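Late entry, evening session. Most of the bench is empty. Finally got around to the prediction I had been postponing all week. Sequence below, unchanged from the version circulated by S.P.
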Amino acid sequence: MKTRPFGQTGWDVSEIGFGSWALGGQWGPQTDDQSTKTLRLAIDRGINFIDTAAGYGDGRSEKVIAKTLNAVADVSPVRLATKAPPAEGPWPPSPYCRWQDRYGAAYLRENIQQRLRNLGTDCLDVLQLHTWTRAWNDDPQPLLVLRQLCDEGLIRYVGVSTPEQDQNCVVQLMRDGLVDVVQVIFNLFDQEAAAQIFPVAEETGTAVIVRVALDEGSLTGKYDRDHQFGSDDFRQAYFAGDRLERTVDRVAMIRQDIRDFGLQDDYSLTDVAIKFALSHTAVSTVIVGMRSPEHVKANAAVSDKADLPAEFLQQLRRHNWRRGVWYAGK
């Protein structure tokens, strides 16, 4: 497993990170025993960066991770990033939301204490605000609260997970030195982060976590136009209406590119998607959702494959798809 510097933290993290949303549910049936076996294998395969959140099963993912890490305490350090959600209100926060109502100091302190309890630690490696709004950029008090918690020894590094509707809102936060880490969407269909977020991250030494590298599974190529998601699977809404049909057609175009370049024997579609997400030098780690040992074996192996040829990467850029944001329902 190859590693990369995690911003200016001094950490070297596995370039393939463990995305743990499924450990909390919402991706179909998942037992804690299955989650534990999957996570342990990931650590055995050299994955030393895990991303989770309070909202992944109302803390269930965090608790499973804590239990698993306690059982493998003798392994090399594993860096763990979690997220605090805003208090009740619109997601993402609207331009009219006040930070006092969504990320007030008392609320944040209470929430961070719950993260510490769930993860069984006295200091969080990385605490990310799970969403944000540009409306708070000029008065970013929630981030200043987190800085105070760093001074108190409860958090090591502070980050923001971008709102899908306005990922570039973190550019000012990076330039103002308010965040150590940003988590962004970057994949074959959504390449906007390459325009400004990645260059500014390199300028400022900000660590970059890439999420949704596989577009919630579509870039594995495992769905056909008629695929049906279970009622307990959030992708039922993500690919609502004709979204899945349109996506499958786009995925077929990527498959054709792989064949045209004669790379089908060396890279699967999943390999290409992950390698593309890793292709920018600003990226510290790409977190990939893993629910089973089979997922771990396949995803961890991508790190050992050669980088994609430059000409092929150039061709893949044409798949940038300005489809809008699907989470809120286009």
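Two things to note before I forget:
The beta strands are 3-5, 12-14, 16-19, 49-51, 79-84, 124-129, 155-161, 181-185, 207-211, 285-289.
The first helix runs from residue 32 to 44.
Will write this up properly tomorrow.
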